[in-house]
Structure to design on (855 residues):
C-alpha cells in the first residue's frame, strides 16, 4: 500500500474506535479518504463538483447509526464489507498497471463494488464510476504508481506553478504596452526545433516578467503564430518546489515529475522560470544533482520549452559558469525603456491603478512620475520606479479617502476633552463651576453641529468616490467577460455585453465623473477629499524617497532664487562676488539649461583662512536643503598617501573592507542631493585628483564594487589655501593677485583637473567694516540661544565696535572673533546666569565701557 493508503487505514481504525464500533466499516475509510489533505479523493470530488461538506455530513449520519459496543477487551477487526473492498482495490491497482494500492483504488473499488449502502450515497451525490474514472485520468495523466508516494507526482504543475494563461483569461494580469520587439524575439526562439528556450536578460525593474505575461495575454487573444495558439504558459515556483522536501531525493522527484508532466503534454505547456539563476545549485546536497543538471537533457532535446528571466549580474555569475546549461538558452536582451516609452507604458497601466485605488490619475502625474524618477532616482530602472511612484501617490490619496479627515478628527478630540471636563465639573458645587458648565454645554452644542455638517460632507464626497470606484471595477469585469465570450464563440452574449451593458456602464461613469468635477469646481475651497493624483502628489513621494524638499521642486521659487545672494549674505559677509558666482550656477541648474550630465556646479574656493569659505558651503546647504548638515565633508588632509585613494571609492575585491564601500561614494549614494565639500584639497595626494576627473566631467564615479554612483545632483566645492599669501599682499592690485593665484594653481594642479572646474572663486581678505557685519551675525546666534532660556539681550553700537576691533586680524580672518566673543561676552555672562542675577524674563543691555563690556 502507498503511504497515504496506510494513513487512511490507520485513521479509519481510530475513527471506528472513537465511535465504539465493533469493526472498521467502508464508511469509516471513505470518511478519512475524503478528508485527507493532499489526497487524491478530494481532488476527484472537486472535479465532479460534489459539495464535500454536504457529502461528509451525510456520511457522518450513516456512521452515527452503526451499532456501538461498550466495555473493554474487544478487538477491532475489518468488517467483511471492508475486506471485499480490499480485494476489489487490489484488482483495481492491477487494472491500472500500478505496483502499489493507492487511495484512488479504494475509492474506485467502493464505486464499483455493488455495496448498496455506499451506492445509495454516491447516487444521491451524482457520483458514477465512469465520471470518477475520467476525473482520475485527468489528474493522473499517464503516470503509474511505482512508489509509495505517488500523490506528489499528480498535477504537479498545479501545485508548483501558476497558470499565466488562465490568469490572463480572467483579466488578472496587467496589460503589457510596448515591448513588441522582445515578445517577437521570444516567439521566434520558442518556434525553433531544438534549444527553443529564450532567456530574458535585463536590469531589475525593466519588465522581464511583464514580457512573459505579455506573451500569455497574446496567447489568450490568439495574437501569436499558429504553433503557439492554445498553449499554456506556466510560471514555475522554485520556492514551493524546494519547500518541505525533507528527504534526500524528494526535491529531484518533484522536479522530475514537473519535467515529465511538461514533456508528456507534447508541447502544450511552456514553462516560465522567473529568477532563472535559482535553478543552479537549487536542491544540491552531497551526491545529489541540482535542478540545472536535471533540466539539461530535456532542454537540449527541445522536449521542454522554457522561458527564463534573470538579471545581467546573476546570469554572468551563475548561468555563464555552466557552459553546458548556457548553450541551451538563447538570450533576449531587455533594455530599459526610454522616457517616452515609459510614459506610454504608464498610460497603458493607468486604468488598472485607477480601479484598484478608486481615484483618477491625471496624465500630468504620469509624465512627472517618469521624468522625476528618471532624474532623481538614479539607482533604479524605468518603468518600475515610475510605476512605484504612481502606486504610492495613489495609495496615499486612497487612504485619505477611507479614513476620517483631519478636520473631523480634530473636532471629535475637542468634544471628547469637553465631555471629560463636563463630567468632572458636575461634581463641583460652587458658582464658577456652574458658569463653566453652561459655557461647556454651549461649546459642545456648537461643535456637534459643526461636526455633523463636516461628517455629512465627508460621507457625501466619499460616497461619490466609492461609487466611481465600484463602476470602474464593474466596467473592468465587463471587458473581461466580453473577451471571454468572444474567445468561446458566444457571439450573442458578447454582443449583449459589448453593445448593451458596457456602454450603459460607461455612460453612468461619465455622468458620475462630470458631477464629481462640477462639485469639485463649485466647492474647490471647502472640498475635504482629493480624488485625483496630480504632479504635486508624485513630487511629494519623490521628496519622501530621496530627501529633496518637494516645495523646492514645485513651489514657485523664482523669487527666492532671484534673491539667493541676499539669503546667503545673512551668513557670509564681505564675499558678494563669490556668492553671485555660486548663485548663478544654482539658477542655471534650476532653469534646466545647464548640462544635465554634470554636477550642478563644481567650484574651487581659494583664500586665506577665516574668510568664509567653509561657511559659504554650509549656507548653501541650508539654502538648498533647509539643513546645513546636508554637507558631505571630506577632509583631504587624510588622503596624503597614494593608497588612501581606495578610502574614497572603497577597497578593491579581495582586500579588507571591500564590503564597506568608499567614504565619498557611499555618502553620495545614500544622499544623492547634497553639497560635497572637499576641504583643504591641496593637501591630498595627486592621484586623488585622477579619480575626481570623472566626477567633474560626467557627474559619475564607479566604486570598488562596480556600482555607478551619480553625482549629477550634487554641488561639488573644493577649498584651498593655495596662493593665499598673494591674496593677503596689500601691495598687489586685484588683477595681479588673480594672476599670482592662477600661477600657484598651475604649479600645484594638473591642467586637465583645473580645466574641468566650473569656476575658481577667490575670497578676499576681510576688512574692519566686514568684521563688524560678522559680529552682528555672531551676536544674533548668541541672542537666539538666550531666547531659548527666555532671556532677552541687546547691544549698543559701541559694544559691537569694541568686539570688532578686538577680534580683527587680517591674517587669521574672522576666526579670532569667535574667541573674543567667548572671552569678553559669554564667560562673564555665564557667571551672571549661574549666580542668579539674570533670570528668565529679564533683558540684558550690553554696553562697552573702556576695555571691557558691561551688563
Amino acid at each position: 500500500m502507498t503511504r497515504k493508503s496506510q494513513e487512511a487505514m490507520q485513521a479509519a481504525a481510530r475513527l471506528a474506535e472513537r465511535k465504539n464500533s465493533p469493526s472498521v466499516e467502508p464508511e469509516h475509510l471513505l470518511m478519512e479518504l475524503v478528508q485527507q489533505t493532499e489526497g487524491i479523493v478530494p481532488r476527484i470530488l472537486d472535479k465532479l463538483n460534489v459539495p464535500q461538506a454536504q457529502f461528509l455530513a451525510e456520511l457522518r449520519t450513516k456512521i452515527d447509526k452503526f451499532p456501538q459496543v461498550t466495555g473493554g477487551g474487544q478487538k477491532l477487526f475489518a468488517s467483511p464489507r471492508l475486506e471485499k473492498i480490499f480485494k476489489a482495490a487490489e484488482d483495481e491497482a492491477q487494472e491500472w498497471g500500478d505496483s502499489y494500492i493507492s487511495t484512488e483504488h479504494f475509492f474506485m473499488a467502493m464505486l464499483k463494488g455493488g455495496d448498496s449502502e455506499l451506492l445509495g450515497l454516491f447516487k444521491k451525490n451524482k457520483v458514477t464510476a465512469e465520471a470518477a474514472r475520467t476525473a482520475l485520468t485527468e489528474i493522473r495523466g499517464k503516470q503509474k504508481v511505482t512508489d509509495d508516494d505517488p500523490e506528489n507526482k499528480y498535477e504537479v504543475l498545479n501545485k508548483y506553478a501558476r497558470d499565466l494563461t488562465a490568469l490572463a483569461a480572467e483579466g488578472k494580469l496587467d496589460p503589457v504596452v510596448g515591448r513588441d520587439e522582445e515578445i517577437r524575439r521570444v516567439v521566434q526562439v520558442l518556434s525553433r526545433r531544438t534549444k527553443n528556450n529564450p532567456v530574458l536578460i535585463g536590469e531589475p525593474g525593466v519588465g522581464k516578467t511583464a514580457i512573459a505575461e505579455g506573451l500569455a495575454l497574446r496567447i489568450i487573444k490568439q495574437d501569436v503564430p499558429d504553433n503557439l495558439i492554445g498553449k499554456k504558459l506556466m510560471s514555475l515556483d522554485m520556492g514551493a518546489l524546494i519547500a518541505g522536501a525533507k528527504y534526500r531525493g524528494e526535491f529531484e522527484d518533484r522536479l522530475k515529475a514537473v519535467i515529465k508532466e511538461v514533456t508528456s503534454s507534447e508541447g502544450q505547456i511552456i514553462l516560465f522560470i522567473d529568477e532563472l539563476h535559482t535553478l543552479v545549485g537549487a536542491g544540491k546536497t552531497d551526491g545529489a544533482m541540482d535542478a540545472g543538471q536535471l533540466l539539461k537533457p530535456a532542454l537540449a532535446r527541445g522536449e521542454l520549452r522554457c522561458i527564463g528571466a534573470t538579471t545581467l549580474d546573476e546570469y554572468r555569475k551563475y548561468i555563464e559558469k555552466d557552459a553546458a546549461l548556457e548553450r541551451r538558452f538563447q538570450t533576449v536582451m531587455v533594455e530599459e525603456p526610454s522616457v517616452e516609452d515609459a510614459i506610454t507604458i504608464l498610460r497603458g497601466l493607468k486604468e488598472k491603478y485607477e480601479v484598484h485605488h478608486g481615484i483618477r490619475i491625471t496624465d500630468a502625474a504620469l509624465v512627472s512620475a517618469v521624468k522625476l524618477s528618471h532624474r532623481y532616482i538614479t539607482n533604479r530602472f524605468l518603468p518600475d520606479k515610475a510605476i512605484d511612484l504612481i502606486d504610492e501617490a495613489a495609495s496615499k490619496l486612497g487612504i485619505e479617502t477611507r479614513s476620517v479627515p483631519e478636520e473631523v478628527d480634530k473636532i471629535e478630540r475637542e468634544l471628547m476633552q469637553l465631555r471629560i471636563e463636563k463630567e468632572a465639573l458636575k461634581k463641583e458645587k460652587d458658582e464658577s463651576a456652574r458658569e463653566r458648565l453652561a459655557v461647556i454645554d454651549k461649546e459642545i452644542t456648537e461643535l456637534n453641529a459643526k461636526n455633523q455638517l463636516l461628517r455629512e460632507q465627508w460621507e457625501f464626497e466619499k460616497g461619490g468616490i466609492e461609487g466611481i470606484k465600484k463602476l470602474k471595477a464593474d466596467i473592468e469585469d465587463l471587458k473581461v467577460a466580453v473577451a471571454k465570450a468572444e474567445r468561446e464563440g458566444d457571439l450573442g452574449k458578447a454582443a449583449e455585453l459589448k453593445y448593451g451593458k458596457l456602454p450603459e456602464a460607461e455612460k453612468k461613469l461619465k455622468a458620475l465623473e462630470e458631477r464629481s468635477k462640477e462639485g469639485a469646481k463649485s466647492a474647490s475651497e471647502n472640498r475635504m477629499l482629493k480624488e485625483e493624483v496630480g504632479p504635486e502628489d508624485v513630487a511629494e513621494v519623490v521628496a519622501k524617497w530621496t530627501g529633496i524638499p518637494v516645495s523646492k521642486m514645485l513651489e514657485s521659487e523664482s523669487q527666492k532664487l532671484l534673491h539667493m545672494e541676499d539669503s546667503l549674505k545673512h551668513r557670509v559677509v564681505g564675499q558678494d562676488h563669490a556668492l553671485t558666482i555660486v548663485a548663478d550656477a544654482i539658477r542655471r541648474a534650476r532653469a534646466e539649461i545647464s548640462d544635465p550630465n554634470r554636477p550642478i556646479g563644481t567650484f574651487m574656493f581659494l583664500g586665506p583662512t577665516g574668510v568664509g569659505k567653509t561657511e559659504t558651503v554650509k549656507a548653501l546647504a541650508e539654502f538648498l536643503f533647509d539643513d546645513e548638515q546636508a554637507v558631505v565633508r571630506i577632509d583631504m588632509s587624510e588622503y596624503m598617501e597614494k593608497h588612501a585613494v581606495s578610502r574614497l571609492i572603497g577597497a578593491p575585491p579581495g582586500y579588507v573592507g571591500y564590503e564597506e564601500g568608499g567614504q565619498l561614494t557611499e555618502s553620495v549614494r545614500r544622499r544623492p542631493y547634497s553639497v560635497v565639500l572637499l576641504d583643504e584639497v591641496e593637501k591630498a595626494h595627486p592621484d586623488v585628483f585622477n579619480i575626481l576627473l570623472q566626477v567633474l566631467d560626467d557627474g559619475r564615479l564607479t566604486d570598488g564594487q562596480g556600482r555607478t554612483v551619480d553625482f549629477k545632483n550634487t554641488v561639488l566645492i573644493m577649498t584651498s589655501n593655495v596662493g593665499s599669501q598673494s591674496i593677503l599682499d596689500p601691495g598687489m592690485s586685484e588683477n595681479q593677485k588673480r594672476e599670482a593665484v592662477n600661477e600657484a594653481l598651475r604649479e600645484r594642479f594638473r591642467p586637465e583637473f583645473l580645466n574641468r572646474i566650473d569656476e575658481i572663486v577667490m575670497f578676499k581678505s576681510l576688512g574692519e567694516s566686514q568684521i563688524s557685519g560678522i559680529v552682528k551675525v555672531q551676536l544674533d546666534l548668541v541672542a537666539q540661544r538666550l531666547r531659548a532660556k527666555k532671556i532677552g539681550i541687546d547691544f549698543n553700537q559701541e559694544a559691537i565696535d569694541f568686539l570688532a576691533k578686538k577680534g580683527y586680524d587680517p591674517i587669521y580672518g574672522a576666526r579670532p572673533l569667535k574667541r573674543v566673543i567667548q572671552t569678553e561676552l559669554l564667560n562673564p555672562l555665564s557667571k551672571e546666569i549661574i549666580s542668579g542675577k539674570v533670570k528668565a524674563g529679564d533683558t540684558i543691555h550690553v554696553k562697552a565701557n573702556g576695555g571691557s563690556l558691561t551688563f
